Amino acid sequence: MRFRGAAHSERVSARIGVWLGVSFLICFLTGLLSHLIQHPPDWFGWPSRPVWLYRVTQGLHVVSGIAAIPLLLAKLWSVYPKLFGRPLVRSPLHALERGSILVLSGSAFFQLVTGLLNVAQNYPWNFYFPQLHYALAWVAIGSIAVHVAVKLPIVRRALRRETEPEPESSGLSRRGFLRTTWLAAGAAVVATAGATVPWLRPVSGLSWRSDRGSQGVPVNRTAAAAGVVDKAASADWRLDVGTRTFSRAELAALPQTTAELPIACVEGWSQSAVWTGVSLPDLLRAAGVAPGSRVGVVSLEEGGLYARSDLPGEHTADPLTLLALKLNGEELNLDHGFPCRIIAPNRPGVLQTKWVRRLEVSP
């Protein structure tokens, strides 16, 4: 069987492959960074400034993953005729190449499809998404590395070649196919990037979450879903900080700090908002604790995956880390964490614990 389409050429495959490799590398590195921030080993540290850094890295993670979808489809279209080549295996190196393609295609499709469903918060599966997504990211990037190593001579030859006769074809030309691929990838990015890039929102028709939530900020988990409505609204609520206890009125009587900070979710959306509350260094000093201590933040929510978070000393010493009482000039509503929540600069949204009950100071 012979394939004469303009898309089925080494030059097309190599060019698309380069951009697909760049997209996967950005997606992998930014995803690895997000994982380390959420599950930090002893050697890893993450700064509190600049306040927008995680917003950018996680936005790049999601946008590069979305761009990779049309690029992957175009790449597979450009090379699929080789699947019909005979013999199926010509040498050990050829077998390694075919095996890497199988693993690469399977892991890449899994990562991109499940990642897209995660962005939409649609989970038609029984496994824990972050754990499997992280594990298969290593499988995908490893198979890409093997594939690139095997194909590098062909890629270099294809990219250096200045002219190549167009194959006879009644369809798109080679340049037409490449332009269509770039257009599809660009359209996918523009249509969705408004979730994290504010100035793209007017033209980003498929963006999600942005500023359409209550009090101008999206809500991933409501107070009802967390099972904290009665406890959060109770007049008996108190906040424990070390050996001190504060009522909400006492917190409101402490010096208040107002700051514009973004909240950036692992799903890629982000939104800047004006938060008002007690600066954590001020709160710790009021409780007789030195700022810079490691602090465990415990929520009223029980049993949730993110009912507790840990604030490293870098953040507890930063005056922009707030125990927020107000959002955009209004008292926090229940879904945004009333009676108080943590807002720390340059942190994932899942670590910005809501409905705070206790701050545990590590020795």
UniProtKB/TrEMBL annotation:
Keywords attached to this entry: Membrane, Transmembrane, Transmembrane helix
A molecular function GO annotation: oxidoreductase activity
Keyword Manganese annotated: no
Domain Oxidoreductase molybdopterin-binding per the UniProt entry, residue ranges: 230-362
Top-level taxonomic group: Bacteria
CDD domains in the record: SO_family_Moco
SUPFAM superfamilies registered for this protein in UniProt: Oxidoreductase molybdopterin-binding domain
Pfam families cross-referenced by the UniProt entry: Oxidored_molyb
Transmembrane segments: 12-38, 58-80, 101-120, 132-155, 176-200
PANTHER family (UniProt xref): BLL0505 PROTEIN (PTHR43032:SF2), PROTEIN-METHIONINE-SULFOXIDE REDUCTASE (PTHR43032)
Protein name, entry field: Twin-arginine translocation signal domain-containing protein
